[in-house]
Amino acid sequence: FPVTISQHINHSKEPYTTADICGLKTDLAQLESHFHGSSSGVDPLISFLNSPILIKNKTEIGPVFIPKLPKGEGAIFLLNTKRSRKTEPLVNLFLEKCSNENFARQCEDILAPITNTCIKDFLSADMQGMLTSAKELSKFQHQHFTLMIPNLYRDLWKNALFNDDFYLKLCGAGGGGFLMGIAPDFNKAKRALQGHEVRSILSFS
């Protein structure tokens, strides 16, 4: 395959520079696109660096640290739908929807700011703020990305929003069937999700 990742990374010299990381992201995007269509390269970059990353813009990309949070009743969790999904059809569906000028504008004017607020709230450990922004993100995805949500989970998603039990968001498919959720009270969320497989990945107060 005509990509040489090592041209961008000197493994004997860390930390990697922003230029290193940007170059690596470009190479990994090309590699991953070979398997499931258009790719940003973000997922394999995270795996390669073994760290969460923050993308401020096209030239400002780098690792970040997950904040230490006091443990409490709230939790960020994964919900296993046990229904595998392929990435390429979902990517193609999103790109097709973006050909609609109104949808593309909503993504730019509404979705992007909501997503950025979620990230900012999380990195600053403002979990109450994140709950608010996560609800807005969940509402947007339920309204505009309905076809990407597994059929059997659409009503559950909507009811959770209405009752403020928890808020769900789509995850990259990659052949898997997970949804990510955030709940102000994880025990309450588990009761609402009785019969489903849920895994807490980070608790907070």
Key traits:
47% helix; alpha+beta; 6 strands; 7 helices; single chain; 4-stranded antiparallel sheet
Give a summary of the structure in a few sentences.
With 205 residues, the protein is α+β, with helices and mostly antiparallel strands.
Can you walk me through this structure?
With 205 residues, the chain is an alpha+beta fold. 47% of the residues lie in helices and 15% in strands. It has seven helices and six strands. It has helices at residues 18-36, 42-49, 87-98, 101-123, 127-144, 154-163, 186-192; strands spanning 53-55, 61-63, 74-80, 167-170, 178-183, 197-204. The strands form two sheets. The protein has a four-stranded antiparallel β-sheet with strand order 4-5-3-6. The chain has a two-stranded antiparallel ribbon with strand order 1-2. Helix 4 (101-123) runs antiparallel to helix 5 and helix 5 (127-144) runs antiparallel to helix 6 (154-163). The protein is globular and about 45 Å long.
Q: Strand tally, please?
A: 6
Q: Helix/strand/pairing class, anyone?
A: alpha+beta
How does the overall form come out from the CA principal axes? Answer: globular
Enumerate the spans where pLDDT stays under 50 for 5 or more consecutive residues.
Answer: none
**Number of helices in the DSSP assignment:** 7
Strand content: 15-25%
- Please bin the fraction of helical residues: 40-55%
Strand order of the largest sheet: 4-5-3-6
Cα-based radius of gyration, to the nearest Å? 18 Å
The major sheet is characterized as: 4 strands, antiparallel
Q: Please provide the ordered H/E string of secondary-structure elements.
A: HHEEEHHHHEEHE
Average pLDDT: 86
Instruction: Calculate the terminal CA-CA distance, rounded to whole Å.
Output: 48 Å
